[in-house]
Write a structure and sequence with these properties.
The protein has 190 residues and is an alpha/beta fold. The protein is built from nine helices and four strands.
Length: 190
């Protein structure tokens, strides 16, 4: 986060933590951002790259964005050479690189692109491209409103998400994020 030009909070636990710490923020999900810029046509005036997602998602995304989608990289993420990719992005004068890879790998790869000289802007959107093109369904509005998107996604794809949500995210939230949020909230009221 220290090297990012701008940071947005995608998940409500992070929004709550930032607000409790006195950092004004609003939630901007990758899905909301991506839907907004594709529907408005904002990407059509920029040279765009998509890193991650399936070949089908990349083709569907390219059809939505049009000719400005100038670079695409899919496949096994452990095979990607970040130095080579940064060079190719610069050679193609990419202005916006959308990284559609699950955190934390996508965020780490994005930071590595910058440290390897990529000159454009990077937006990490996780699975938002899959949702935009219809591969995955986004949680319904009621689930988003009551902050149980994670439960919706878990029930929709338990084989892929059970370990991440139940063994990685939930303990991290309970043992780290929630106590920090409460401590900051109490400290600000005192």
């Amino acid at each position: 986060m220290e090297t990012a030009d701008y940071t947005t909070a995608d998940g409500w636990p992070i929004v709550s933590l930032m607000r409790a710490g006195g950092i004004p923020t609003s939630r901007v999900t990758g899905s909301d951002w991506l839907q907004s810029v594709t529907q408005s046509g904002a990407l059509k005036s920029h040279r765009v790259a998509l890193i991650g997602g399936s070949d089908y998602a990349a083709e569907a995304f390219r059809n939505m964005v049009g000719e400005t989608a100038c670079y695409s990289l899919q496949g096994k993420k452990t095979d990607w050479d970040v130095r080579r990719v940064a060079g190719e992005l610069n050679d193609r004068r990419i202005q916006i690189c959308i990284v559609a890879v699950t955190p934390p790998f996508g965020d780490i790869f994005a930071a590595d692109l910058v440290s390897n000289g990529f000159r454009g802007s990077i937006v990490s959107v996780g699975g938002a491209v899959d949702m935009l093109v219809g591969i995955q369904r986004r949680a319904p509005a009621f689930a988003r409103a009551v902050r149980v998107e994670w439960a919706w996604r878990l029930l929709s794809n338990p084989k892929r998400l059970a370990r991440r949500y139940l063994l990685e995210c939930l303990p991290t939230y309970i043992l780290s994020v929630l106590p920090q949020t409460l401590a900051l909230a109490v400290g600000r009221k005192a």
